[in-house]
Each structure stands twice: as C-alpha cells, then as structure tokens.
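Look over this one:
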Amino acid sequence: MLRFLLAIPFLSYLSMAGQLSDCEPIFSSTILHINEIRARIGLPNNFFTDSGDAGFEVPAGDSIHSIYAHSDWMGGMTADGQVHLAANSYFSGGGSDFFSGPLTNDGSAITSEEMCESYAELYTAKRLDAIIHQEYFDRMDLVDQGADPDILNQAPFENGYSPPAYFYTWPANNPHPDYDFYLAPFFDRDQDGIYDPDAGDYPGFDLEGDCSCHHPDLSVPEYLQGHEAVWQVYHDSGLHTESGGVPLGVEVHCTTFGFNTCSTLDQTLFQRKRFINRSSNTYLDTYIGQWMDTDLGCPTDDYVGCDVQRGLAYTYNGDGNDADCDGVQGYGQDPPIFSFQFLAGPYADADGLDNPFSSDLGEILALDGIPYTGLGIGYGDGIVDNERLKMSRFTYYNRGGGIGFPINVAPDIAIEFYYFLSGRWLNGQPVTFGGDGTEGDILTSFMYPGASDPLGYATQGASAGIPWFEDGEPGDRRLLPITGPFTFEPGEVQEIVTAFNHTGAYADAFVTFNNMRIEADHIQTQFEYCFQLAPPFEAVESFSYAQDENTFEFSLPYYYPYEATWNIDGYLLYGNSIEFTFTEEGEYEVCVEVISCNSPEQVCETIHITTMDIPDLDRDELIVVYPNPTDVALYIQSNRIGKEIRKVEIFDVGGRLHQDSPWGSDTEYLELSPRIRRGFYSVLITYEDGMQRSASFLKK
C-alpha cells in the first residue's frame, strides 16, 4: 500500500510538468536586529540560517543561537486523492520547493524568470520613518489650509525633509497585467490606489490602530506591524527539488517584524504569512506546518514539548547545563527555553455553526469545538463560521534519515512530508500517546503536552489527567507545530500569525517554564490588541536644542515615547521637549535622564551663557505638562504661587483650537478630547489674573 501511495505524486508531476514556472531559486538574506534578537531573514522561505550557519542569535552579540533554521511546509489533496506539497529545510544541498516573486492570478499559477528575479529581494521598513513621513505631509496639509509655513522647518524638519530612499523601491504595486496589482502593504494618502511617496504614501504601518488582528480583511494587503519589519514574496510554482512534491501554486506574502519596548517583546520575533491559492485546484485536508531545527545552543542535548492550552511548541535543554559541543557554543549553566506560538491561523471550514468553546469534552467532540484558547479564535462567541484555527497538531522528528532508519526521522519524499503534516510518522503510522510516540495504543494529536491538556482533548479523553513529557535521551530535534486541516479554494487567502520567543534562564527550571507561560500569555494579549500596547523605545544618545537669546528649547529625538527628567541648574523639568530661560550668565550642565528597560540612562551637555539681555523672569512662573508624550491625559505643574489656573486651551501646530477646558482648584488632570489625534500640540494656560503661559506636548 505504501509503495502505491508513493508513486502517485511522481505520476502526477509528469502530467503537470508543462505548467511549472521557469525559475531557479535565488537566495538572498538580510539581518533584522531591532531588539535583543539578531535574526537572518532569507528568501525564498529560508529563515534563520545562511550557508550552513545558525542565524537566530539571542541575546544579540553573544554568538549563541536558539534556532538553526525555519521554513514553511504546506500540503493538501485534490478530490482525486493527489497530494500537492511544498516544503523547505536547509538549502545546504541546493534543494528548494520555493522561489521568489508572485504568481499570475488567472488560475494558471505560473510566473516568469524575469518576475522571479525582480522580486528576489527582502524589503525592510521602519515604523519611525513612516511616522515622520506622515507628520511632514500632515503639516503640508495645514500649510495648504493657511497655517504658517514655518511649521515645515520645525523639529524634526530643521534641515528639511526627503523620504527615505527605500520608500521609492517599496514593492507596493506590480504593474504587470497578469498579476495582482497590489503587493506589499502601503498607506495610500490620496486614495488613488497608486503608491507614491511624494504624494504622502509610505510602507503600510498601522499608525492609527485601524487593523483587526482577529479577523482581518484578507482581500486587501495586510498592515505592517512592529517597529521594524522585513517583507518578502515567494511561491512554490517550480520544480520541487527538496520534497519532490507536486506544486500547489501558492503565493506567500511574509512579514517578519519585531519590537523594541523594554518588555517580553524584546526577546520575541513575529511573522505574518498570507498564503494565496493562485491555482485552479481546490485542496482538501490542507495543512500548514512551521518546521524548525531548534538548536538551543548545543544542538545534541535538547528535549521538545508543547503547551496545548497556549498553542505553544518549545525546546529546552536535556539537563541544567548546555555545554559547548562540536564547535558550537552552548548557553551554559541554567539554559533558556525557546518557544514558538500560533497566535492565529487559517479559517476553519464553514459548517453553519458557532462551534463551542467549552470544557465539556463530549460537546466539543460532537460539535468540533475547542476547550483551550491556544487552539483557535472565534469559538463560542455567538458568531457563525468565524472560527480560526491555531496549533492543531504538534510532532517532531530526530536528526537523520534514509533507508533503515526509524519512523521518527527526516522525510525524503512528498508523501512522507504530508504524513508529518497530518500528524503521523513518515510511514503513515499514527502518533500515539506515551513513550516516544511510536509504540502506544492511544492516538494523539499533540506530542509531549506535559500537563497542559488536563481534559485529554488530544486523545479524545483517553489521557485526561495524565501528563506526558519527553524522558528519553536528549538529542537533535526538529519541531513541527501544525495548523489544519482546512479546505483551500482557488483564489482564497489564508493567514497565520506566529511568534518566536526566547525565555531567559533561572536556576530553578520550574521558574523558567512558568515564565515561558507568562510571556506567552503576554504575547497573546499584545496580539489581541494588535500590538497597540507596545510603545517603541529609542535609546537616548544625545539631545538637541534651539536658542533664542537666553531662552533654550531642549528636545529629545522626535517621537521619543518615554517621560524624561531634565536637570538644569538644579531645576527639574519633565517631558520630551522643554523650554528654559537662563537668568544669569555662566556655564551650566544640562542633563536628561530616561528609564531604559528599568535602568536609568543620562546624557549631559555643557551650555555657555554669555552677556545678553537678561529679562526679569521669576522661575517660579514656569509650568510643566506631563507625561510627555501622552495618550489620554495631561497633568499640569505650575510653580506660580498664589495664582490659580482658570482655563486650559490646546492648539495644533497650525494654530487651530482643539480643546477649551475650565480648570479649578480641585482639578487634578486634563482628559484629552477624542478630537486630539496623534501629533504635536501647544497648551495655553490662563491664570486668574489673565497672565498666560504655554508649553508643548506630543499626543501618542
């Protein structure tokens, strides 16, 4: 029987040979280093490895890696039982099932060598560049409406403004008529459908919080997220020299992104992948696997496992010391844990039900529900057929392969890859509960769940209350967290969002595992809110100032998001940008201190005040507004003794009034009006005697 199954892909491949695209794999890579991870992002479908070297270094700069390689596996069957499959692993032997560029959108799912070469690049974009670009064009609009043109010369545009060079090569539009016109996401300022940075367009970061992470519109390009992102497009419509499988005709849009936030996200990378069926085939029992060779330091002493409740697969060291081995540097005593998390997966097949989210195992099995949030989205929410899968299977295999090896080693041919994707061993034998998963009697969909499946969902109740950890010899493992099955229609788009996380080590392994779970919950929460809870962090290396006589405006880099404390001649002021008038000649040390990942950073500079007209200014009349930047409210600190504030007005940089609020002696803070959007604003404060003072702030 097995021999017959193995012959099917070969016979069908011959019949499809005329439909294969004329492309060779063109390998390229770039480095994404936005936080504590330094990761090599490769094309096509080639992540965290390059020329045989590991490329997921964490902590960055320590020359220790937790992943050696990562790539997509995808497979499905046509109605006649034909398996179509694409999978990559290392590229070390030159084999690849994937190629750069998009595919035609007429159902033929082909492309040209020229198209493959045109998109054999990785495209990097930064959120801060998009923010500054949008701010400049916002000000241009204000000038067109009558505002003072000088606002185009104010920070951060003192030296003028030109868009970053990469804005002009961002692959937003594909002009070829046989392909989809829209490729990489972009913000279309004038809504003309054409990407043009000189018209205010920019790579499509979600600056306004408009995206929906749970149920995005898959008919339009995705938003970019993160503080830095790398976008690429690849497909499988060529000769499959890795698996020998028949192509699916799938096009993949992949964004790898990260955050710099002084939080768990600093040791996490994310990927959003959109899979587009460009063929005319309907694929049944389709699975997407996220294959990984997770070499946690030394590659030969690792265990693997999963957390069913969180959609989590992980690798940990076989003992308390990850020693160096075979020329590879280990993590040493008390090693960390690497984990992979499905945050969202493909839509489940429609069945006319709101499938339940319940702890009643009988109801779950009867109505195709789930008992844990790590298994899906949209279950039991009162909405019919909006369910999305997450991790639905987890398996692994050991290093090795070829004739005579056990059934839990590397696959060689397409049907073996598909067996792994469907949660079986490479000979089609089901994975079983207990031991190493090869010799038991109870079928299971999740290997080594520990105690994370108390209901025994993976075994339909047979393993309820029974923990299962790996307890054999540690080794060199390959992880395969899987989502599916689902039906993949012609022209359909499916999306997965995943996270790669590094949990730092503690002397007590229990604490490390518990922290992994806490971090996974935090990552899931960030996703629930579309990462709007993750403000950027920019290290402070210097500050700037502008001088008008003896009045100085001191500023941190544009859009610095954390509150800063300034110390000038013993006076403490707070905010991103402050104004200070010196009343005496002399030499002053100006220092600014910020909190960087719970540790203070301080930058100081000496200011020389020479002979000038010194006004009669009482420093007790200064005001400070904080926090600055802010998102919902402002506190006002006034040192003017005996005079109360009566009114607070807020103006934009164009001089337009956005808020006019009374202020009494018992007022603690000012809640910002919903009309105040992101940007710079001035606060005008009026005292009871009519005197006015002003300050500025940034609305996040």
